[in-house]
Amino acid sequence: MNYGTEHLEGLPAELAGFYAAHREFIKNSIATYYPDHASAGWMDRSTGVSALFANDLPALHDTLLLPTREYLARGGKMLRPTLVALTLQAYGTDPLQHGEFLAAIEAMEDSSIIMDDYIDNSERRRGGPCAHVVHGFPLANISSCTLFAMAHGVFYNNHMDLPGDRLGALLDAVSAEWLQMAFGQIEELYWTEDNVNDVSIGQYFQETIARCAFLTFRGPLKYAGIVANAPEEDLQRLAKIGEYLLIGYHIRGDNLDLQPDSKAWGKIAGEDITIGRRTMLINEVLQNASPEDRARAEEIINERTEDEEKKRIVYDLILKYGVMAKAEAFAERFNILTKEEIDKLSIPPASRQLFHEFADYCMVTRKI
Amino acid sequence: MLDLILPNFQTRFRTDRNEETIAEVLREENERILDPAHLEADVIGHGEFEWDFRCLRPGFRDLVAPFTRVTSGGSHLLLLALDELGVTRDERLSLIPIVEYPHFASLVNDHYNFHPELNRPKPDRFTAAKLTQLKYAAQFMVVYPKYLVLRNRMAADLATRNRLHAAMFQLTAMVGTSRALYLDWSRRSFAGVTRENGLQWGIYTLASYFLGPVKLACILAGVPESKVNQMRTAFSWLAVAAKLELDRRVLDGETTSPQEPERQPSFRVESFPAVEWIEYLEKSGGPPRHHNRFPDFTRCHEAAITDLRQSGKGPRLRNLLVDEALEKFSSLMVAAELLPDLTNRLMDAFQNEGGTR
What is the ipTM metric for this complex? Predict the structure, then answer.
């Protein structure tokens, strides 16, 4: 397994040290809790239910574990478990005592990426074919949804032995995240399928939070805060930090992905146009360009084209109307908002510094 | 679906009064799920920015409507269990959407997972996008009832709420596992699958109909975890019996596919006579070992049933297994001192009514 790149380009110094210090532990935890074979014990522990008869363990591995393991093996950044470790430590809890929690967060991330890929009908991810391309849509769907759910077994089956009140807070937090995630997904698919051209910036931000914050980054921050018994007011701030971080991270990601000289051009940016996704960049063109440019962009986006020339026309319109600069300004604004909230947390200065650097990485220094 | 799974469901489990109650609860909830004020207050919260509720009508509403017309039947078991456990307060009705919404979502998921268009090397992009939109409407259906626990609509204490959260999670995992195995086995023509694997699959496959509702009832009634675990084992044996009996009824032509097209993919999976098929393959030297990533599920299903019918295998072994499973179910429930009336009803369901056993 190759998960966890050795060095993340653009990672600030202190955070790079923290990342390096925890990377191996997170990798080993993933290997332990998401193994290369499914045992009866793994199945019982993950579902919280003992089987009465022998399960077809090779089939359970091939269907539940393998697709996500294939993504894990391609080397993700492990940003989310790193953020969980950082948060646990900030509130005096040793991350090394919570390997399953850290591993579960990364498994949730990679299984949910499988969902993103078949929603977008993408071809490739992290240098390899997408799960639905390898295994077909149905298995990609069943596997990602089931493993995503089963990764939450660490919470629902109370593997961390939390007292009742903290367990309740944690399970409520997880439920709240799932509810928003599912609603956000409905919003996004409605915009795409109905070719909605008047999505406001506020609606876009709210939908992004709803659809993505369960892992990027509100969910991990809240869960870690609850596990580490952070004060109530800090839990609310951690949630807010997660939302601001997400928006800034997302906007910066959209901008990076749309650079035609980036490795991702023709994949992510092209896909957004091909599938008609209403990103902030596309929404801005659809709403603020001249009537003539708007009509041209709308025609191309509604066509669901794979034609590189046509996609380039949309990209040129994004540049023409200064949308990327506007997005950068938003990312900077959310970086400031994030740091204002971080400064209100009751955590040691060293942890505060790490949170600041995490925000900078997400919204300023990150490279594709 | 219990109307098709359980012999004499209509006469021994379904009552008009409970049917009306269930319909009323779901009618209200189906309206509530489309109400932005309710969603903001109870479900998704008041966001810092702005929700776009235009996605609800007609989009979400019309997408899921065909899949919400027929309930699972599990709510009847739920109400019978709650009655017997003495839980009569109105808040208990909050468990009905927890039983039924995931069932509706399951119908959608099976429609998606076994749709011919998606079981092709390169599905049409527009069709795939439409089906994916439907599938994610179902995802909201499956998670939506979590708000009932989150907002404590059943007026339960903290420990009970935590147990309800966990029970919902466990059922989701079991249903997902059932579909994962069915898909994998179909792709490899059931090569290498054992009888025990098939029996365990049956337990996962029927968990949401029998175990799910009764477990929720027990948790709300405050039945201790140790007894609930005994009940779970008992209901695993019941699922074995129910699955084998359903398989027999399908093979004997006593039950047929539901008329509603929205229920057919789920019924096709749930009624697949896996244990019979596995034993038949073993006796006939096993299936050819090949892997087909895109099987025609409907054709495979029908071909297996035709082969099994033509094989003329007698029902003797099946009956012995069913009898053994029912005996274990009954004795475990007696040992747990739980739900004697419901246990008797369920035992009766398999005892000769209709002259089949």
Answer: 0.94
